[in-house]
Amino acid sequence: LVDGSMKAQLAVPDMHIPIQYALSYPDRLPCRADALDLVALGSLSFEPVDRERFRCAFLALEAGRRAGTYPAVLCGANETAVYQFLDGHIRFTEIADLVDAALQTHVATTFPDVETVWAADRWARDFVEARLVSSR
Predict the structure, then answer these.
(1) Contact, 58 vs 66, CB < 8 A?
(2) Are 99 and 58 in contact (CB under 8 A)?
(3) What is the phi/psi pair of residue 9, to 5°?
(4) Looking at residue 14, what is its pLDDT?
(5) Can you give the pLDDT at residue 33?
(6) pTM across the whole model
(7) Residue 87's pLDDT is what?
(8) Phi and psi angles of residue 74, each rounded to the nearest 5 degrees, phi first
(9) pLDDT of residue 88
(10) CB-side exposure of 71: number of CA atoms within 13 Å?
(11) Is the peptide bond before 71 cis (omega within 30 degrees of 0)?
(12) Distance in angstroms (rounded) separating the CA atoms of residues 114 and 72
């Protein structure tokens, strides 16, 4: 915040709350997720995030900063690369390479409408698929 303080949203590590919030925004609805017990947790500790180890997290932050159709490209490329990994066609470490290549190649639309967002997602999926076909 402008005064140097920050707020934190803390919860158990599962996707119930983020998905529900995405579907109900801006409202907050009751959720069946377990409540976070800070006393049982005991303490929180923080350390710098390793850019190489968590490369996709930094690619996501960059896509968010760039805005426009970049987040859609990130999602489409990531989903396609993850499916390829799960099917045994690529190594885990290749996911970030494919996502990064899609983001670097994409020519963004700054203020996209819904159809343009869907098109950017489709473009990214096709880009990753084509990259994999050409490398085989």
Answers:
(1) no
(2) no
(3) -105, 115
(4) 87
(5) 83
(6) 0.74
(7) 96
(8) -55, -50
(9) 95
(10) 10
(11) no
(12) 10
Q: pLDDT value at position 95?
A: 97
The residue type of 110 is: T
Amino acid at 100: D
- Cα–Cα distance for residue pair 136/134, rounded to 1 Å: 6
Q: For residue 43, what are its two tokens?
A: 């303490």
Question: Residue holding tokens 């919860």?
Answer: 11
Tokens of 81: 């690369």
DSSP state of 8: -
Q: pLDDT means per 10 residues in the chain (136 residues)?
A: 94 89 92 90 93 96 97 98 96 97 97 97 98 86
Dihedral class, residue 67 (left if φ above 0, else alpha if ψ from -120 to 50, else beta): left
DSSP 87: T
CA distance 82 to 76: 10
Cβ pair 121, 115 in contact under 8 A: no
C-beta of residue 56 within 8 angstroms of C-beta of residue 96: yes
